Amino acid sequence: MVLICLLTLAATVTSTIASINEAEFAPEDIITKDVAIIGGGASGTYAAVRLREDLNTNIVVIEEKDRLGGHVNTYVDPISNISIDYGVEAYLRYGDTAAFFTRFHVPITPYTQSPQTSVYVSTTSGSNLTSYTAPSLEAQIGAIATWLNLTEKYANITLPGLWNFPAGSNIPSELLLPFGEFAQRHGIEAAAPIFTVVSNVGIGGIEKVLTLYVLFAFGIPVTQEFLNSSLFVPANLSNSVLYDRAYNLLRDDVILQSRVTIGERSANGVKLVIQSKNSTSKKLIKAKRMLFTPPPSVRNLEPFGLTGNETAALSTFTGTWSFAAVARIPAIPAGYSVYFYAPDATLDNYLGIRDWPWTLSITTAPKIPPEEHLFEILFAANYSLSHADAKRIITTAVQNLTISGTFASNSTNATIDFVAFQDHNSILWRQPASELRAGIVQDVYALQGQHSTWYTGGLWSEDYTGNVWAFTDSVLPRLIASLHSNGTR
């Protein structure tokens, strides 16, 4: 497997972590639990509820932010008092997703999009892409239906997650084709714009991404529900309400605004020193198992003292830099969605819309009075950049809209006022076909359970809430079984 050839290199970067002296902690600062959950996003919150309420397991959740919910971001406009969900917008009914909302008495309703006028502009100039016309709705639906017919046979090796994914020559060859070749072979190029808008896949060029990774981004459940129009949202409530109610339930077992500074892991359990952001106080958590829910990058796991095989497997992932925001933009009329596409995008080159190092969409915030000019922004790049860098690029893009006269009849005021801004940075499966054949998927999944550490979250499944919860439900029985297997319960 690919793991073997990386071990020598990995050994040179394995973390060295200071040992934890339990005697340095007062008894009241030592917390003993069955499972320590790192991260209180969608997967961490769901796992905490399932473990504590349904599986009779003592838990503690350690979350760096001041709330649960992760990428569920809600901005409440102080003028209209209307909530804008600018992180997660809608939910799949896949698995038990709807039931989890019912559990917290959150009513749901079908997701509908506000009608908006779409404008396609060049990433370089902000001017209208006169050579580009979006595919018709009929063409897009037809292409997506064909995509489903072509891919649903792979449900057994991709859902929930990659537990059963093959290696070597057993990997279906068409999944290792560049998506551009796959799309042209089957005549589904018209699906590319929807794939990029919904899943944000293909920054730098979707045609170069392996078909397998496009399937990870726009997989079987989201394709089915997109075609059936069965997505849902909370009825007359923000998406954050679910996590507010989950926090009220879990409050006594959640530690907010804290992070792990030192971790020790062994086959017998974990010890974690956590530091509060608001004080110098530290606590020691002793747990039989740890469930890690953020992106499992080498950097995120550094405090836990990675071993050579862990570093070797996890260092193969590719970083992604993504940002979600709400901004006041007078230069764009209300009721418009602006999509910044690569300048070479043309009527017959739907696959080329993302042939650029970054992507940006600016859409009118729903239900907000038009005179407020509030817009939701999604920005992502295939290279490292800070919040300030992202804001600078977005600001320049808005200025270019005015300079180029894209909205000539509207305000010449090219200012942009960011009222909410969050990063959604993560890591992606982008290993080449050779590494997939060599067994990198199996190497990564072999980390599940090692050193009392289990994993869930967006990397391990399609990165939609329903998929993440379904994958979590496949991890939890394994975690519970490991607690019983060596007599720790």
Automatic annotation (TrEMBL):
Keywords of the record: Signal
Annotated signal peptide: 1-18
Lineage: superkingdom: Eukaryota
Signal found in the keyword field: yes
Keyword Nucleus set for record: no
UniProt-listed InterPro entries: FAD/NAD-bd_sf
Protein name, entry field: Amine oxidase
